Amino acid sequence: MKKILAELLTIGDEILYGQIVDTNAQWMSIELDKIGIKVVRKTTVGDVESEILTAFEEAEKRADVILITGGLGPTSDDLTKPCLAKYFNCNLAINAEALAEVTEFFKSRGRELTELNRQQAALPTACQKITNVLGTAPGMWFDKGDKVFMSMPGVPHEMKKIMTDHVIPRLGKKFELPVIHHKVIRTIGIGESMLAEKIAAWENALPSHIKLAYLPSLGEVKLRLTGFGSSLAQLESETTELVEKLKALVSPYIYGYGETPIEVVVGETLRSRKLTLSIAESCTGGYLSHLITSVPGSSEYFLGTMIPYAYEIKMRQLGVKPETLEKFGAVSEPTIIEMANIVRAKFSTDIGVATSGIAGPGGATPDKPVGTVWIAYSDKYQTVTKKLQLTKDRMLNIRLASIAVLNIIRQSLPG
Fold first, then answer.
1. Are residues 22 and 170 in the same domain?
2. Are 128 and 148 in contact (CB under 8 A)?
3. Which end of the chain has fewer CB within 10 Å, C or N?
4. Alpha helices, DSSP H only, in 35-121?
């Protein structure tokens, strides 16, 4: 089955200047994916006629469906309609139905229809008018052989209404659309390059209609399998088999699937096993607790935290031995072991975890450079520690260390 490809064109200097964030393209990509249309490119073009016309021409070469947003206002810098008229070699003319609609729009709001507003009804004669029930700028559908151009307002709620009510149903009638099925596997504790090496043979054996994408993010790598075909059930069955083969290669690093982040997975595990958690975090400064408490229902397993940032607080409030700090320093394995064990005892929890490190940019020593972090996990059976050597960026170190603690909890939980 032929893949149907789409290109999204956003028109407007305000997007290029960063004055407005283009959320339309993301939303359209999601909706097109649902019906089996693959977006191959997203392009933003300024309010320049020659650049807009070039974008139309290039998009037509690449895609079957070209979806355009923006540039439909009544002012002189709104060039989409005249550019479409030139591209399709036709005139702009007042569309009687569009004029009636825009007249009613202003009348219903007790406003006068000016000549400038009236020009909203001037459309390229080659288009099929698409009613915009939420605004004054109609949508415009153009058939060009087996290609489709569709122009819509840039106002998000107007675009979404036209897409949902008109564009998506029309595309379903015009094209024989394939099924697209995604399966996301979430891994943690392994870098992208090492992961790629471990699964190279598996990846090379993937069938031609199933593609793999590596999606690295903070502290983890997501693997996305995308299958194209005519049967959803068949694609689901195939990807399930592939995931089972993948698990045989990298099971220790797989922590979940889909859109569920590590803090939710850890929380669900603690809840299901009726285990409680407390934290002593120094260098992460509360960020780890923030991640854990961002999960609804976390009060069932998370009892509390201490942030003993200074030496004195580590000693007086938490209870780390002065001689441990004096001999080994705050950023050390002996200190982090005491922190995890003590906080578990103080809060009477099943598990205690701790962080201590040099987030940066200052505080480094020759043997403890910026990015040196110790983390620890403690329960009644074991105490597990890990030394991290992270980056030179303070906020990145805080986030990476917190993710690493969540992973050490996942790896160390009893059973």
1. yes
2. no
3. C
4. 49-62, 80-87, 96-108, 115-118
For strand 65-69 and strand 147-152, is the pairing parallel, antiparallel, or unpaired?
Answer: parallel
Which tokens is 246 given? 């993948």
Residue 120 has pLDDT above 70, yes or no: yes
pLDDT tens digits along 146-180: 999 999 999 999 999 999 999 999 999 999 998 88
Surface-to-core class of residue 179, CB atoms within 10 Å of its CB (0-12 exposed, 13-18 middle, 19+ buried) = middle
Residues 62, 2: contact at Cβ < 8 Å? no
| Cross-strand bridge partners of residue 385 | 376
Q: How does pLDDT run across 263-272, given as a tens digit for each residue?
A: 999 999 999 9
Separation CA 248–CA 172 (nearest Å): 40
Q: Tokens 């009348």 label which residue?
A: 107
Could you give the count of Cα atoms lying within 13 Å of 237 in the half-sphere of its Cβ? 5
Contact at 8 Å (CB) between 315 and 322?
yes
Clarify whether residues 138 and 161 are in a common domain. Answer: yes
d(CA 251, CA 358): 32
Q: Do 74 and 122 fall into the same domain?
A: yes
| Total of domains in the chain | 3
Mean pLDDT computed over 381-386: 97
One domain for residues 343 and 408: yes
What is the average pLDDT across 345-362? 96
Give the pLDDT confidence of 25-70 residue by residue, as tens digits: 999 999 999 999 999 999 999 999 999 999 999 999 999 999 999 9
Question: Residue 235: phi, psi to the nearest 5?
Answer: -65, -40
- State the Cα–Cα distance between residues 27 and 207, nearest whole angstrom: 29
Residue 365 CA from chain centroid, whole number: 37
Q: Provide the CA 368 distance to its chain's centre, in angstroms.
A: 34
Picking from 66, 49, 48, 69, the residue whose alpha carbon sits closest to that of residue 58 is 66
Stretch (H or E) spanning 169: helix 168-174
Phi, psi values for residue 133, rounded to 5°: -75, -10
